[in-house]
Amino acid sequence: MYQWINGNSYTCQVTFYPTNITLNAAACTFFQDIRWVRIGLDLERKRVAIEPVPKATIELGVIPREQLQKLSLGKGYGRISNKAIMHEIYTSMHVPVDGCKYAAAFNQNENLLEIECGDGMGKEG
């Protein structure tokens, strides 16, 4: 009898690099029509949140423009490039940002992709 192995095609993951946050295809499904996000840190629980910001919200001026980060979507991945944010994550949360993968889950109630930084999944290989 076979023992089936779980894949990661439907598992939300992000990878932290010194210059960017890369979202896998599963994580990108929550950002289909989104080009701007904002990033929050929960230092107590060692979590990073990525909030999709719809165009209408930007036009209303509800969120300060200095909090907006550009999300670039490619085939099968998304990327938020910002060295300053990655430096802030590294220095504030003391988590590796050199190609380490982290589990993520979309919180429907809060409309956030929450990244669990307490336990990295390892480096890309």
Characteristics:
38% strand; 10-stranded antiparallel beta sheet; 3 helices; 125 residues; single chain; alpha+beta
Could you give a quick summary of the protein structure above?
The protein has helices at 25-28, 55-60, 83-93; strands spanning 13-16, 20-24, 36-42, 47-53, 69-70, 72-74, 77-81, 100-107, 112-116, 122-123. By secondary structure, the protein is an alpha+beta fold.
Q: What oligomeric state do these chains adopt? A: single chain
Pick out the low-confidence regions: none
Measured distance between first and last alpha carbons: 31 Å
Helix content: 10-25%
Total beta strands: 10
**Rg (C-alpha, Å):** 15 Å
Global geometry: globular
**Separate helix tally:** 3
Largest sheet: 10 strands, antiparallel
Q: Give the helix/strand class.
A: alpha+beta
Which range does the strand content fall in?
35-45%
Characterization of this structure:
Strands 1, 2, 3, 4, 5, 6, 7, 8, 9 and 10 form a ten-stranded antiparallel sheet that branches. The chain has three helices and ten strands. With 125 residues, the chain is an alpha+beta fold. It has one domain. A hairpin with a 4-residue loop joins strand 3 and strand 4. The chain is globular and about 60 Å long.
